[in-house]
Specification:
Helix content is about 5%, strand content about 55%. It is mostly beta strands. Its main location: membrane.
């Protein structure tokens, strides 16, 4: 396998939750178990105290399959992250993914648990920076925009084997209350559709989600900003991936969904773009831009929520080891009305992955 191909696989695994590479530990009688993980030794440099210093962590996951019959397969996945920048008594662990399901040949898969939201099917295309990126509309435990709990997900590839490259996702999220108001959600539904024109270098995608908002989220005392019965979002993206070039962009809008100081933005317009080139010697420079603009915010009007240029690079020693630098050049105003940090951040690190 060419070094450039290996690097393309690795950059995806390093910056998304999809494990391209895994170590097979068991494969017998229709049962298979793989393990994967990485150690990311990383340091942030910034004037912003909470974003300065050691950011090291370890990520570990398992994926299993069992062949029930000729057409039906059962599967499960668990992924966790452990902090490496705290004292042993203060170290933290968090579960990123935990789901199980069934896959029926030519008809698709259905699973339930903690998984990726339907909107992230579009947002993932630009979540490719060496360290930063993917943080305009994609937020963990924010309805179905990224990783979230209580997700029942149906996925179908190649549209029942009829249309090559046409992938469909249908998703339902159950109510999650009794947590921080910004991480709650009511019952919701999401869908996404992606098409690569039968295996071409270009692909297009779109997604839509709509969820009930909880009583706490509609309580003006708990969340004075962003009122309404529904939280909605839509996104559309484009991607080109060929000839050692990776280009991707998406635009999305959210309603009563994106968290801000005091609650939620009534409306947010989000844009991301990334351009990367893979050299045969293992070097991969990256240039990107991320913008999220809040609109119609109570007592404020319009205000940027996220706005930065990203310049970075990764060097792949081999398929398991890489080093990176990523410079987040903040474009937010120092006097922004929501008090959002406007400092630049530089990330330096090395990653070992299996």
């Amino acid at each position: 396998m060419k070094k450039s191909t290996l690097a393309l696989m690795m950059i995806s695994a390093l910056t998304t939750t999809s494990a391209v590479q895994a170590a097979e530990v068991y494969n017998k009688n229709g049962n298979k178990l793989d393990v994967y993980g990485k150690v990311k030794a990383m340091h942030y440099i910034s004037d912003y105290d909470s974003k300065d210093g050691d950011q090291t962590y370890v990520r570990f996951g398992i994926k299993g399959e069992t062949q029930i019959n000729e057409d039906l397969t059962g599967y499960g996945r668990w992924e966790s992250e452990f902090s490496g920048n705290k004292t042993e008594s203060d170290s933290t662990q968090k579960t990123r993914l935990a789901f199980a399901g069934l896959k029926l040949k030519n008809f698709g898969s259905f699973d339930y648990g903690r998984n990726l939201g339907a909107l992230y099917d579009v947002e993932a295309w630009t979540d490719m920076f060496p360290e930063f990126g993917g943080d305009s509309s994609a937020q963990t435990d924010n309805f179905m925009t990224k990783r979230a709990s209580g997700l029942a997900t149906y996925r179908n590839t190649d549209f029942f084997g009829v249309v090559d490259g046409l992938d469909l996702t249908l998703q339902y999220q159950g109510k999650n209350e009794n947590r921080d108001v910004k991480k709650q959600n009511g019952d919701g539904f999401g869908t996404s559709l992606a098409y690569d024109f039968g295996g071409s270098d270009f692909a297009i995608s779109g997604a839509y989600t709509s969820s009930d908002r909880t009583a706490d989220q509609q309580n003006a005392a708990l969340a004075p900003r962003g009122q309404g019965n529904k939280a909605e979002a839509w996104a559309t993206g484009l991607k080109y991936d060929a000839n050692n070039i990776y280009l991707a962009t998406f635009y999305s809008e959210t309603r009563n969904m994106t968290p801000i100081s005091g609650g939620f933005a009534n409306k947010a317009q989000n844009f991301e773009v990334v351009a990367q080139y893979q050299f045969d010697n293992g070097f991969r420079p990256s240039l990107g831009y991320v913008l999220s603009k809040g609109k119609d915010i109570e007592n404020i009007g319009s205000e940027d929520l996220v706005n930065y240029i990203d310049v970075g690079a990764t060097y792949y020693f081999n398929k398991n080891m890489s080093a990176f630098v990523d410079y987040r050049i903040n474009q937010l105003k120092s006097d922004n009305k929501l008090g959002i940090n406007d400092d630049d951040i530089v990330a330096l690190g090395m990653t070992y992955q299996f």
